[in-house]
C-alpha cells in the first residue's frame, strides 16, 4: 500500500484512473483505448447500448478481467488490478446485476457473505450467527426493515434479493463502489433506498461507478455520465449540463424518438378475449378485469402489491385460490405453463435467467422448445427445418449471434428477445409480459416495444406487468394500479402521467 495520491491534469485528487484500456476477445474488440477517471465523493455513470462495453469495463475495474492493453490505477494501492482479490485489497466493492445471494443461507448469513470466505471464514461464520444487531442495521439502511433475519434468502423476490446484496455495503470496507446494473431488478420504491445509500456513500467520500440503462435513474443519481459505443468512449458529460436526448443520441448514434401511448384502443363494441373474475392468488385477492383483442393492458404496482401473483396464477405458474379466467369464452384451469399454452396463454417471466431459458441450450434449442411438435414428423425432429426457422427468428427478433450461440452468453436484451421468440412463436391469444424490459438498454427496449405493438396489431390480448411507470404510460392503452393485493384504480396514459401512476400506487391522489 502507498499513501501517494493520484491527481488529474488540474491537480485534483482522483480515486481511480482507467488508462488507455483495451479488451480483445477472440474475434471481438470489446474495449478500445478507453481512458477516464473517477473522483472521491462522486457518482460517475457509465451508459451505452448492448455490446457497448459497459460490463467489460466494469469487469476490468473489478479485477474480473485483465485488460489486453492499458491499466487501472487505484489511489492508495500500489499494485495492478489483475484479479478480484486485487480489487478487494484496493478497496473496490462490486455489486452485480444478478445479486450474489445464497438461497440456502438465511438473510442474516447473506448480509455477512463476504466475511464467510477466505482466511477469515471461521470468524465470519461466528459473526454471521451471533451479530443480529449488525445485520439488522445493515438491512435497515437499504429499506429491508420488515424482512426477518432468519428467513431463507430463497423466499425473497428479485427486487428484495438485490437490496439484500446491497446491504453488504454497510459491512464491507471499501473506497470505490461499483454498481453494475444493480438497480435493474429493484422497484421504484426501493430505488429511493438506493438513492439514500448512494448519498451516504458520496458524503463519506466513496467514488461510485453506476452502470445502468435507466436514464431516469442515471440523471437522478450521477454527477457525470460517460458514454460507450462499440467499445469506445464517445464522451463524458456533466449531468447538470446535458439531457436524455443527448445521452441517448451518443449511445445509439442517432436520435431516439419518444414513445407515445397507442391511439387505436379497441372500441366498446369489441368483445374481450380475456375475462378475469374474482381471482385470488398469493397476495392478490378478488381481482377482476378484461382485455380486448388488440389491447395492451398495463398493470403497475410496488413490491407486495400482488401484480406478479395475478400474472403467474393466470398462466399456471402459481396456485389460484379462487376465481375464474376465461380465454375466448372458455374457462382455463391451467396448473402448469404448458397447460396454459394449450389454452392460448403464455407468460414471459421477469426472471429470465432462472425461468426464461435453459442456460445449457443454444438459441435454436431455446427458441423452439415450446413448439417442437412443429419441427417433428413421426416422432423425429427435422433439424434442417428447425435450423431454417431459427435463422428466420433470429432475423425477425433481431437477436445477435447464431442458432448455435449459447443463450446465456448473450446480453440481457438479446436473451429477452430469445424468450419472447420462444413463447410468441406458439401463437398464443393472450400474452403476459412480466417486467419485459428489466435490465435492458434503450435500443433493445425500443425493439421489444415494437414487438409488443405488433402483437396488439395482430389482435392479441397483452398484459404488461411493470414497476416502471414510464413504461406503462408509454406502451399501454389502459393501466390498472395494484396496491395491497387489490386493483385500486384504472388510469389512461393520454390523461394520466407517470407521476400520477406512482402517486396512485402509493395511495395518494394525482397532482
TrEMBL record:
Keyword ATP-binding: yes
CDD domains: ABC_Carb_Monos_I (cd03216), ABC_Carb_Monos_II (cd03215)
ABC transporter domain boundaries: 16-255, 268-509
Gene Ontology molecular functions: ATP binding; ATP hydrolysis activity
Record flagged with keyword Protein biosynthesis: no
Keywords for the protein's UniProt record, in alphabetical order: ATP-binding, Nucleotide-binding, Repeat, Transport
PROSITE patterns, per database record: ABC_TRANSPORTER_1, ABC_TRANSPORTER_2
InterPro entries found in the cross-reference section: AAA+_ATPase, ABC_carbohydrate_import_ATPase, ABC_transporter-like_ATP-bd, ABC_transporter-like_CS, P-loop_NTPase
Protein name per UniProt: Sugar ABC transporter ATP-binding protein
Amino acid at each position: 500500500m502507498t499513501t501517494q495520491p493520484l491527481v488529474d491534469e488540474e491537480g485534483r485528487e482522483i480515486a481511480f484512473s482507467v488508462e488507455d484500456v483495451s479488451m480483445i476477445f477472440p474475434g471481438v474488440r470489446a474495449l478500445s483505448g478507453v481512458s477516464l477517471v473517477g473522483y472521491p465523493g462522486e457518482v460517475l455513470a457509465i451508459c451505452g447500448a448492448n455490446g457497448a462495453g459497459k460490463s467489460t469495463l466494469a469487469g476490468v475495474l473489478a479485477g474480473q478481467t485483465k485488460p489486453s492493453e492499458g491499466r487501472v490505477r487505484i489511489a492508495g494501492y500500489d499494485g495492478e488490478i489483475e484479479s478480484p482479490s486485487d480489487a478487494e485489497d484496493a478497496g473496490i466493492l462490486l455489486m452485480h446485476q444478478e445479486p450474489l445471494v445464497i438461497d440456502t443461507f438465511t438473510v442474516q448469513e447473506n448480509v455477512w457473505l463476504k466475511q464467510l470466505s477466505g482466511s477469515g471464514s471461521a470468524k465470519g461464520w461466528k459473526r454471521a450467527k451471533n451479530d443480529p444487531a449488525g445485520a439488522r442495521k445493515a438491512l435497515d439502511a437499504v429499506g429491508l426493515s420488515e424482512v426477518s433475519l432468519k428467513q431463507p434468502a430463497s423466499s425473497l423476490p428479485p427486487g428484495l434479493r438485490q437490496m439484500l446484496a446491497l446491504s453488504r455495503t454497510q459491512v464491507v470496507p471499501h473506497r470505490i463502489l461499483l454498481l453494475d446494473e444493480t438497480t435493474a431488478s429493484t422497484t421504484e420504491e426501493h430505488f429511493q433506498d438506493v438513492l439514500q445509500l448512494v448519498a451516504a456513500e458520496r458524503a463519506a467520500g466513496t467514488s461510485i461507478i453506476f452502470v445502468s440503462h435507466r436514464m431516469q435513474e442515471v440523471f437522478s443519481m450521477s454527477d457525470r455520465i460517460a458514454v460507450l459505443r462499440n467499445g469506445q468512449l464517445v464522451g463524458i458529460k456533466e449531468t447538470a449540463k446535458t439531457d436524455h436526448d443527448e445521452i441517448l443520441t451518443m449511445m445509439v448514434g442517432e436520435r431516439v424518438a419518444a414513445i407515445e401511448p397507442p391511439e387505436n384502443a379497441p372500441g366498446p363494441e369489441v368483445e374481450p378475449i380475456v375475462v378475469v373474475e374474482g381471482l385470488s392468488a398469493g397476495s392478490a385477492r378478488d381481482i377482476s378485469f378484461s382485455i380486448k383483442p388488440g389491447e395492451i393492458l398495463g398493470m403497475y404496482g410496488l413490491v407486495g402489491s400482488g401484480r406478479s401473483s395475478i400474472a403467474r396464477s393466470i398462466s399456471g405458474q402459481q396456485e389460484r385460490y379462487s376465481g375464474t379466467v376465461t380465454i375466448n369464452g372458455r374457462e382455463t384451469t391451467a396448473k402448469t405453463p404448458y397447460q396454459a399454452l394449450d389454452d392460448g396463454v403464455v407468460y414471459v417471466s421477469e426472471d429470465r435467467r432462472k425461468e426464461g431459458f435453459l442456460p445449457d441450450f443454444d438459441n435454436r434449442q431455446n427458441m423452439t422448445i415450446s413448439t417442437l411438435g412443429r419441427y417433428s414428423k413421426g416422432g423425429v425432429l427435422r433439424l434442417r427445418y428447425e435450423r431454417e426457422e431459427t435463422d428466420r427468428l433470429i432475423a425477425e427478433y433481431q437477436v445477435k449471434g447464431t442458432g448455435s450461440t449459447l443463450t446465456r452468453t448473450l446480453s440481457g436484451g438479446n436473451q429477452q428477445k430469445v424468450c419472447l421468440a420462444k413463447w410468441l412463436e406458439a401463437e398464443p391469444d393472450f400474452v403476459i409480459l412480466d417486467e419485459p424490459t428489466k435490465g435492458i438498454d434503450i435500443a433493445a427496449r425500443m425493439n421489444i416495444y415494437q414487438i409488443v405493438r405488433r402483437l396488439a396489431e395482430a389482435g392479441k390480448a397483452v398484459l404488461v406487468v411493470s414497476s416502471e411507470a414510464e413504461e406503462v404510460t408509454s406502451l399501454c392503452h389502459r393501466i390498472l394500479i395494484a396496491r395491497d393485493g387489490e386493483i385500486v384504480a384504472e388510469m389512461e396514459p393520454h390523461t394520466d402521467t407517470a407521476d400520477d401512476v406512482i402517486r396512485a400506487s402509493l395511495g395518494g391522489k394525482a397532482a
